[in-house]
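Reproducibility note. Readers wishing to regenerate the assembly model reported in the main text can use the exact inputs given here. Chain order matters: entities are listed in the order in which they were concatenated for prediction.
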Amino acid sequence: MAKIHVTATVNGDEVEFLCELEETLLDVLRDELHLTGSKEGCASGDCGACSVMLDGRLVCACLVLGVEMEGRSVETIEAMAAGDELHPLQQKFLEHAALQCGICTPGILVAAKALLEKKPDPTETEVRFWLAGNLCRCTGYDKIIRAVLDAAAEMRVS
Amino acid sequence: MSTAEKLENGKFKWVGTRPVRPDGVDKVTGRARFGADLFLPGMLVGRVLRSPHAHARIKSIDTSKAEALPGVKAVVTRDDFKEMPSESVAAGEMMIDYRDMTRNIMAREKVLYDGHAVAAVAAASASVARKALKLIKVEYEVLPHVIGVIEAMEPGAPVLHEAMFTEGVEPTPDTPSNIAARNELGRGDVEAGFKKADIILERTFDTAPVHQGYIENHACVASVSEDGKAELWCSTQGHYMVRAFCAKLLGMDISDLRVTASEIGGGFGGKTIVYLEPVALVLSQKAHHPVKMVMTREEVFRATGPTSGANVWVKLGATKDGKITAAEAVLKYQAGAFPGSPVGPGCMCAFAPYDIENVKVVGYDVVSNRPKVAAYRAPGAPISEYAVECVVDELAEKLGLDPIELRLKNAAKEGTQAAYGPKFGPIGFVETLEAAKSHPHYNAPLGPNQGRGVASGFWFNIGGESCATININEDGTAQLMVGTPDIGGSRASMAMMAAEELGIDLDKVNPVIGDTGSLGFSFLTGGSRVTFATGKAVIVAAGNVITDLRERAAKIWDIPVDAVEWEDGFARPTSSNAGEFDPLSLADIAAMAAKTGGPIAGHAQINAQGAAPGFGTHIVDVEVDKETGRVTVLRYTVIQDAGKAIHPSYVEGQYQGGAAQGIGWALNEEYVYGEDGRMQNTGFLDYRMPVASDLPMIDTQIIEVPNPNHPYGVRGVGETPLVPAMGAVACAVEHALGTRLNELPMSPPRVLKAIGAIGEAQA
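Running the prediction on these inputs yields the following structure tokens for the assembly.
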């Protein structure tokens, strides 16, 4: 099968890749670009482990086709820290022990960042419903929710 | 200060603190490499063809068209795996049989469940691999199937294994059945005990099988060289177990297979056996290329895990003042397609929290046409203890006693002879009950349609074999290597124990998980054993480093080694009689290592004995919507004995995660099968695990009754938190409704049925 040539922006860099029609954005990120921070937990949009920002909108990379990426811009977990400086959410996740195995962590961080960009002062309930599309099987979410609320508070001050 | 003094005074430098975990940054930046994150040059994509039938004889498999497809490099079927004689071996907390294992990874005579592997391909791309699978022609003779445990036990049920005659009954039956084994334990005289009772309750419970639900699908990369040596990278709870299983199934020398454990995205017991790994190795051998295999979520649901669904009958007798006089249970556990359900531990745990004179428990291990069960967090215990805790709660209600008071009247204590055999050492069960009774949660007011449940739980915890190595680097930093995959922060607790012993800063200790070529055998990450058993190995290794450091200091000072002590990271003369010398730090001694005998290291290889059991008590409040049947969890408190919490945040995390899994098991999770015997809810949308908006904050209280068999008092904490959860949630729901369901999950249709809002047929 002939592959399709696509030019897109990935984490600020212009990237060209070839992809098959059936390949998803997640396949492209992981298998072509080797950006493996986005995880596949379900490939059906139910677990949120592949959460990325597509032109500023939170999406599951497994629900976007690679060929749809022409001219578009995606931001992944790999772009979240600014050089050596962790994003406040990343720092708070570490301080609150808001991860155990860590497989869901990249997706949850991307999703939480999207929330705080829209709503810097979310309630606990708002955080819980916003993150309802991101499954975590280890933590029971308690420490995740606390970390997000704490990061939000810190970001409002700074 | 000695460890004993530190324990006495609470003067630990690292133990009991909450530092950032050493692998943390990699986990929040996406850098950590999990099972599917490895890419090797020339790597192929491996995929599995799975049975569409619940039960069928394989008449033939024709792979010729698939092999002819351009881009296909190898195809394997049953013909590529040798027959294995029946041989049982321990796999974590479960037993496996190599004869069954080779049939589970690749069907031989029959497919025994929807999703059973029948062939696999390695191809240049995923799309070619998918096309190749469609070109494989399998001719099946479809057979009648059976799914439920009660149905599978009935005479005349379709029989999965023609040579299976129930073990553990005399005489051995002369006709095959799906009952693999019957086992029984107990003591005293239950009939006499029930005669002494003023009240006797008999109840029957049904539980659905539930999946471990790790978010990371099974994944591995295998690379077999032309000389037969192989490397395997995989997501597993025990890479030494993977090595043993694969070497056995493929007839390899253990030394020819080097297995590296990737970061692991959850396991909960489900990653203690092999599925893809042997297949990937054979594909790689045939294709002469590395092969990566990654399951889809649908494959994980259809072909891996879960834990047993079960039918449990419980009978309890008690006096008017609440002393339990006799306890009896019959447990029927689904094993899946091959024998080996966790009914054994289910029997042992059923009444373990209680000091009961007369106990009898009978268990049945029953096969049916569903995936072979795997360990799941305290395997077997949550099912039997859920049923028992529900009856204990009803007993309290009928006697007009507080359910915690009833438990206190019967609670196991130090010196109690457990019904399953041993005498308990120091345990913290009573402490969890007392803490629950005085917890503000227990006495908070409830609103309309709300109910509160309380339940307790027990799990053994295990020890076992672990290795640890500490290499002191030239600059005085320490390289710590252990062989137990870090599934939830154990590198932090291992490094903390090493730093505590050596007396150096935590950031000077770099903990890594060694591959099987770098460190000796370590049993898997399971049984809540790592902080206890591998932790003990780390402490022994650190002790050996300290011995070495003292010898080096003695050499430098030219005094006897007995005259050198190690304290808080420094070698010092034991007294002024030994001479006047400035203390030498670990870094000072490391810098002079070459002149004093070469590199400094400590190693430990132990079989850790004396794991101490865990007890927990949960309190939960729920509200039931009687129009929709939906149950909302309002408040949750977990109280559990940790012995000693090395890193309290990760202990709390275990408590919270176990409770959340239990809430899912109690309220929503189940396998839905069609008439055709195929699983219908093979995705996270329909297999409904708890999401963030389903749960409240989960409060925790760590009780510390030290385990005398660990230098710091550690007892395992990972599994116990799941055990009380279903009983607690069930009792809360039942108190809210004023009626008992005795069935899991308590999904909206079942709740509506229980209150008579809908009929049987709709539920």
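We highlight two features of this model. The first helix of chain B runs from residue 3 to 9. The CA atoms of residues 79 and 219 of chain B lie 23 Å apart.
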